[in-house]
């Protein structure tokens, strides 16, 4: 997802994802970024008790640090989309890594809780948001056939880092205090810059090589005599510059593409995700306190979250592999619905668990279903909107999810305080997740699949392709003639060659318009000068 070419004023042509190669390095970077983005706000909670003592505040005051981080991660989605569309993924991720690191470093020198909100909360949260979203965009750029597996492996970074950062934070707290721990954590976040540096744009360099090879070939075709080949190359370069100058007024890529709201699949996905987030995060947040209220010791209650994380590590890549199967991938939306239904029913069936064994069984099944949801959520969105509009789509979806995050868990906490009953909360959260699953499955079947069956097949117009090729040929010839007329150097042989090539291009375009066939396109370049013989086609394809 490189940025728009400033010389041409338009987006470069999309390049086929390699599904490997440097993409595996991009996947590793996305794994690290996902781990930091989701696990870091939770891992910071190990410092809360020391912060409460130093700043003389309550637990709810310190808990706002994690809440602000998550709010920045979700709520700044459109801002990230605009920056990615304007500057590209790599610069945005480098800036985000510096912001995240500087936020934690500055937090180690704070003297009150408000300064912690601004540094560790706002600054670090914004930095992680500027890393998380571009990393997913780059992952979709480098993978197509293996994209479900890539998404599953990248999503596994969240449980892996959660199980690593929390014990590390405890060790740092004991040896260096919370200020030293924040300082070292800030240094660790500089690895986000390293991950951003490996996010190499896929399309720019490859397209320039193709254009240069095409220019040299066309110059040789116009003037095959060795002494005049340089004049042909200069003429072709001049024609290309004239075309670039003519294309400058064209409109570039939108900063935030709101046209995705005309996609019914995107509307269905967004509504389903909003309902899902209302109840998805409630059980793991209340699980430890629920276990303590049932008489489970503190250490065993805390171990329940480790069980969920351990199962989650293996569930996400496994689900990604299943989603990548040929007979499953066309129906990945239904697999996503099944994973949500599985998660919701787990919450409902485990609401009456009253002993440690029942809670362990709940954690196993919740870890599996939670991992499936985490592995499929962005894969389904990529499949709906495509990689070109994914940058805008994910920003808008995360913004909408931010409202659900701010509504769901706080509302559940207030209900617990009012009812003094966790069972009702588990029933309510599970019902919301089940509702989202049923809505996604039914809406996908009724509004999308049935709509495709009812639509008549598009009529084939054999002259449609010829018309567009004719217009392109006439435009290219006109630009070549304009450039040759402006050239005052004594290059009569070159001018004659351009005129001859123009007449030949017009002749080829007229034949193509009448017959509906013709030469293969040259990706925006002037059509072939010597017709469409088989030898020339093979040689052109080699470039």
From TrEMBL:
Residues 23-448 form the Major facilitator superfamily (MFS) profile domain. Its main location: membrane. It is a multi-pass membrane protein. It is found in: Cell membrane. Residues 451-543 are annotated as: Disordered. It comes from the Eukaryota. Keywords: Cell membrane, Membrane, Symport, Transmembrane, Transmembrane helix, Transport. NCBIfam families: 2A0113 (TIGR00892). This is MOT3 protein. It comes from Calonectris borealis. The lineage of its organism: Eukaryota, Metazoa, Chordata, Craniata, Vertebrata.
């Amino acid at each position: 997802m490189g940025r728009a070419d400033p010389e041409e004023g338009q987006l470069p042509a999309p390049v086929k994802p390699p599904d490997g190669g440097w993409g595996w390095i991009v996947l590793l970077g996305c794994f690290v970024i996902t781990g930091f983005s989701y696990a870091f706000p939770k891992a910071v909670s190990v410092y809360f008790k020391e912060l409460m003592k130093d700043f003389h505040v309550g637990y709810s005051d310190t808990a706002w640090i994690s809440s602000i981080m998550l709010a920045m991660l979700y709520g700044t989605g459109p801002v990230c989309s605009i920056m990615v569309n304007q500057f590209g993924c790599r610069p945005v991720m480098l800036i985000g890594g510096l912001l995240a690191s500087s936020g934690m470093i500055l937090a180690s020198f704070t003297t009150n809780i408000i300064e912690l909100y601004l540094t560790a909360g706002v600054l670090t949260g914004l930095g992680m948001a500027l890393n998380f979203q571009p990393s997913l965009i780059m992952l979709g750029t480098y993978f197509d056939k293996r994209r479900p597996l890539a998404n599953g492996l990248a999503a596994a970074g969240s449980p892996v880092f959660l199980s690593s950062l929390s014990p590390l934070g405890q060790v740092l707290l004991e040896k260096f205090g919370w200020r030293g721990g924040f300082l070292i954590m800030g240094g660790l976040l500089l690895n986000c810059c390293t991950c951003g540096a490996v996010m190499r744009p896929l399309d720019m360099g490859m397209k320039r090589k193709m254009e240069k090879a095409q220019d040299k070939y066309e110059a040789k075709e116009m003037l095959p005599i060795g002494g005049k080949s340089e004049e042909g190359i200069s003429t072709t370069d001049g024609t290309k510059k004239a075309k670039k100058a003519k294309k400058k007024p064209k409109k570039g890529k939108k900063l935030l593409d709101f046209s995705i709201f005309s996609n019914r699949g995107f509307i269905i996905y967004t509504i389903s995700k909003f309902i899902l987030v209302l109840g998805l995060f409630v059980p793991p947040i209340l699980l430890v306190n629920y276990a303590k209220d049932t008489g489970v010791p503190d250490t065993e209650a805390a171990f329940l979250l480790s069980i969920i994380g351990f199962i989650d590590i293996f569930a996400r890549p496994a689900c990604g592999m299943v989603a990548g199967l040929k007979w499953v991938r066309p129906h990945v939306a239904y697999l996503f619905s099944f994973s949500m239904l599985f998660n919701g029913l787990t919450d409902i069936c485990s609401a009456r668990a009253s002993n440690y064994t029942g809670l362990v069984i709940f954690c196993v099944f919740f870890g599996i279903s939670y991992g499936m949801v985490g592995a499929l959520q962005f894969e389904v969105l990529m499949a709906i909107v495509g990689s070109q509009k994914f940058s805008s789509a994910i920003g808008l979806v995360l913004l909408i999810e931010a409202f659900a995050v701010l509504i769901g868990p706080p509302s559940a906490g207030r209900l617990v305080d009012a009812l003094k009953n966790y069972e009702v909360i588990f029933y309510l959260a599970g019902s919301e997740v089940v509702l989202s699953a049923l809505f996604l499955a039914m809406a996908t079947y009724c509004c999308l699949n049935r709509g495709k069956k009812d639509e008549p097949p598009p009529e084939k117009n054999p002259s449609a392709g010829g018309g567009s090729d004719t217009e392109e040929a006439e435009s290219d010839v006109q630009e070549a003639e304009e450039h040759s007329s402006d050239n005052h150097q004594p290059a009569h042989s070159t001018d004659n060659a351009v005129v001859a090539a123009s007449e030949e291009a017009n002749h080829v375009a007229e034949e193509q318009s009448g017959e509906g066939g013709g030469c293969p396109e040259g990706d925006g370049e002037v059509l072939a000068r010597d017709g469409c013989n088989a030898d020339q086609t093979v040689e052109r394809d080699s470039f």
